[in-house]
Structures are given as C-alpha cells and as structure tokens.
Amino acid sequence: MIRRALTPNRMHRRTTLDLPLVSYGASLEGCPLHWIPPRSKNCDLLLIAGLHGEEPDTTVILSRACRSLPPSDIAPDVGIILSANPDGLAAGTRGNARGVDLNRNFPASNWSADESTARWHVEDSDGLPIGTGASPSSEPEVAALIKLIEAHAPQRILSLHGPLDCVDDPRESELGLWIASETGSPLVTDIGYPTPGSMGSWAWERCLPIVTWEFPAAGIEELSRRFVPLLGEILRSGFRNLPSPDSD
C-alpha cells in the first residue's frame, strides 16, 4: 500500500505536538486529563490510549501518528485522548494512583467489587490482584471519561492496548476488519477471559461500537514503524474511505 510520505517542511512537527490539549477533568493526583477535541461540532471517532499506565507504547504511537500529520490533515470529526491514566503512566503502573484498574471500573452491568487480576508478563499463567474501585466509576479518570463521551457522543471508539496482539471487535466492523487485515493480527470477538467493568462492556451495553486494538509485545521502534502509518490513515480519514487492503 502506498502511504503519503512526510515532506521535509513537515519534519519539525515530529518533535512537537502542534494540536490543542483541552482539559476534560483531573486525575486522582490532580493531573489534567487532556484530549484533542474534534475541530467540528461532531465527534465521529474517538481514539483512546494509555488507559493502562503500564502500556505507554499506546500513548507514544498515537502521539507519533498525530505528529506525523499537519493538524489540518486530521479529519475534523476525530477526537483523541493520548493518556486516559496520566498518574499510572507517570508511575509505570497498570492502575491509577489508588491502584485501581480503570478498565475494570466502568459502570457496566458486569462490574464486580471483587479484585481483578493482571499478569506481570503476558505469558504468565498466574494473575496479580488489582482493585476495581469502591463502586462503578468511583475513579475520577473513569467518571471524567464517561462524562466526555456522553457530552460529545462519538459514533465509535478505537481503544489502544497491549500486548495481546489482536483486534477485539465483537461486531466485526469495517474498522476492526481493516486493522486486522493491515496488521496481520487476528480479529477476535471475545478476548478470551472475563472483563467485568471494562470500557468495552460499558460501551456495548450502550450500543456504542468500540474496537480494541491490542498491540503485540514489541519495542517502540518496531511498533512505530508498523503502526504509525496505519493510525495516520485512520486519523486522516476519520474511519471513512480507508485505503483498501488490496491497494498497491
């Protein structure tokens, strides 16, 4: 597939995020929760990275995709969250500053007060306990994100995670199929284990289409070379008129 190359006069933009960061709330530690709002009144697609603080690759790769394009090239109805869990990102922890897995704190019907588990390494069979919060959306990061989504009503969400190397899309949507085709990662309709209180569970109960793109376990350099161009196409197209997987 032929992708638009960066011209020399764009190169300086690679080191600076030349896009507006607007606060939509604050983290538990008081860190601003920022997003890049769409330029239009409508938000057709919302991209979210960094919900788990120990997945900094999602933030870096999405940021690089944004910085690879002139701001005017990003579709006007695309919204972007580079880090939904800034406290966890700063500490390098999966959960927020209270030790809660934010992706188990959404007010889905399957939310559970019982501790969830997380793996130290993806191949580990034993899980480590992690909190789910005192109640659904008890964590300020989740409450603020829900308020943002409800206020701007995106038509679909693309959530970036890792390192399971798959595209989790129960509806097998055009976007999920395209990402799977372009990356070679399998498209799955079930992640393979319970995810009570996840953003995916919450979104699907509200008929809000969501695709979870799980990056593989790889370094930033490899992920950048493979996925920044793909995310650039999604940002530029706003999900519409994506290049055909068969394009030369």
Give an account of the 3D structure.
The protein has 248 residues and is of the alpha/beta class. It is built from six helices and ten strands; from the N terminus they run βββαβαββαββαβαβα. The protein has a single domain, classed as Zn peptidases (Aminopeptidase, 3-Layer(aba) Sandwich). 27% of the residues lie in helices and 17% in strands. Helix 1 links the parallel strand 3 and strand 4 (78-81).
Please provide a brief summary of the model.
Helix content is 27%, strand content 17%.
Key words describing this protein structure:
single chain; 248 residues; alpha/beta; Aminopeptidase; six-stranded mixed sheet; two-stranded antiparallel ribbon; 6 helices; 10 strands; disordered N terminus
Radius of gyration: 17 Å
Strand order of the largest sheet: 4-3-7-10-8-9
Q: CATH first level: which class?
A: Alpha Beta
For the record, the CATH architecture stands as: 3-Layer(aba) Sandwich
Structural class: alpha/beta
- Could you tell me how far the N terminus lies from the C terminus, measured between alpha carbons in angstroms? 4 Å
Give the domain tally: 1
**Can you tell me the residue ranges where pLDDT is under 50 for at least 5 consecutive residues?**
1-8
Beta-strand percent range = 15-25%
Helix content: 25-40%
Number of helices: 6
CATH homologous superfamily caption:
Zn peptidases
- What is the fold-level CATH name, i.e. the topology? Aminopeptidase
